[in-house]
């Protein structure tokens, strides 16, 4: 919210610069985004008066204006505004002036006619277009008739005011108003605040209750009050009110609508005004019916459902309660009788509706954070009195009460000792009491004990900790003593699970993969991909977008999104991994899903760039399988790692996918993404793996120990064989390792041949076997015996032909 410094000073005596005040607010209350003065950067923009005007001889829309700027001679300016008139005071940028966007105005010729300046619209001197009143949207702005010619325009338009932009946290809804901010500043600076709550003059000979009745669902509207003001004159509001609205970022509309917005800024209480003569029957506050529609004030049609809140007449909705009004009942120049609404709507229901329809307004922001339930009727009276003063309306003498919430003030018991203990202070009971009373709290002190009654405008204070925080911030955080905590000195470290997760990252990064972090929220379709087991999905009730509706049940789809993002930007070689949690539920009735640690990777293109001595080679199944295998071996799993082909994953290539087992325990899968899925993600051939990291964490690990390098030499023997094509390498290696004896330390496949001189149903494989005795010199007889045993068992098991 943008707070006017000059407006604040009407209620509290402030004699410090605006930037210092903003720093104090940030240190004590809420964050401050910026402090700006709209006139900063502008120069030589003055009040001018059009004294003569004639049409441009070479244009059908330009005018040659003689403008009096308080100097000896008028300034000639060529202007194309359709509303330029003789006798009007206008915003005049002289030659050499700086206007919006630091644009410099220079003398120039416009179609052959000299122009020595510019007549400006509001947006041309820096106001956003969306706050410029409709009547001035397509032309220059007319200044007040009593403006002094030649004066800077800034003071007439409120541009010399400093605007403090507060970033109000959800718990401090009271700061979304001038009154709330003044209350806080009065406590911070220990100065009295001067509030001006107008008393209403009831001048109408009619009653509100005779003109309209209300039927209110109190579950929706905790408080709902109406008052009628008859015989109003709808016209532009006074300039002072317009200035305060557009400086706060609100577009002035007319005096009635502006009164509601002004009251909201001043008191923090949203209001709405209806054209009473446009209403059909009485007013009701209810849930919408499925399929009902409303055209809102921003001219958008919204389809409602039974969870939405509406204010309605007999013909249907006239407002989305607490969010935005409807076009059909809006205030226009023809309005004569106004029905003011001042209410408190359920903050949770308002927030849900605003988020669902993506309609976030100044009103919904305040209702969501909470408004003062004890000030509603006073605000309604103040707005009614303003309608009498600036719209010449007649105020009815009664208030129509549809519902009224009697709020109870929070009462908190606390001791001064407790406050001092938490803050590390030695404040006296009198000092603490003074702080609470400056905040407007009622305090009853009995020795060290205090009973504090909280005003209803401070709905954020409920417990002792809240009171202690109030003492700290008003006393000043900078004034609190600095002390080091007293604690037991212990050596910090990671537990086994944390260490394994950290090691996993280091290992994969060492193998050439880059750490990626994806959203835990995704679409329903992507959440169900690459599943390693059955699980019900977890949907968000009110997702922020259609791409983030469901908690993920895999990591792979997020990595594929990352690869697609890179490919769209011409990055074809990508190798990523992600460590994170997936969310599984046994069935849809479970509310809270289980969070399971996973580790996944995705690779496309080549790990190595093309170079003079090494050509690039695209990733294949064996490369990503090797990375997974290296990772599993490096973390020291105590058990055999095996891979079993699996064709059951619908998102994976059926001939290039394998399940991963460690000592018989299923831990994940590795393989190629199905070409159809790759096409769906708009990516090239991609290989992925997904590991259940929690299962890996729970599996037993080998103890790390140092093993001496043997001083005895090793012996290598090769064996080549013809074997049936359908026999897998893994099966052969298992037989060799089983029958190779105690001295066999390594088996490697170094050749695979299929083609000429090899039958079609056969393949030629060659293995290198390494033998070593770590305690003595190995003799040839031992190796020969082992090789004969290996050969004999291979012939028996697979009917191989040794070559």
TrEMBL record:
Cofactor annotation comment: Binds 2 magnesium ions per tetramer.
Domain of life: Bacteria
Sequence ranges assigned to domain TRNA-binding in this UniProt record: 39-154
GO terms, biological process: phenylalanyl-tRNA aminoacylation
Swiss-Prot/TrEMBL cofactor(s): Mg(2+)
Single GO cellular component term: phenylalanine-tRNA ligase complex
EC number of the protein: 6.1.1.20
Catalytic activity: tRNA(Phe) + L-phenylalanine + ATP = L-phenylalanyl-tRNA(Phe) + AMP + diphosphate + H(+)
SUPFAM superfamilies (UniProt xref): Anticodon-binding domain of PheRS (SSF54991), Class II aaRS and biotin synthetases (SSF55681), Nucleic acid-binding proteins (SSF50249), PheT/TilS domain (SSF56037), Putative DNA-binding domain (SSF46955)
Gene Ontology molecular function: any one: tRNA binding
Positions annotated to bind Mg(2+): 460, 466, 469-470
Domain FDX-ACB: 710-803
Database matches in NCBIfam families: pheT_bact, YtpR
PANTHER family listed in its UniProt record: PHENYLALANINE--TRNA LIGASE BETA SUBUNIT (PTHR10947:SF0), PHENYLALANYL-TRNA SYNTHETASE BETA CHAIN AND LEUCINE-RICH REPEAT-CONTAINING PROTEIN 47 (PTHR10947)
Protein family (similarity comment): Belongs to the phenylalanyl-tRNA synthetase beta subunit family. Type 1 subfamily.
Name of this chain's protein: Phenylalanine--tRNA ligase beta subunit
Species the sequence originates in: Apilactobacillus kunkeei
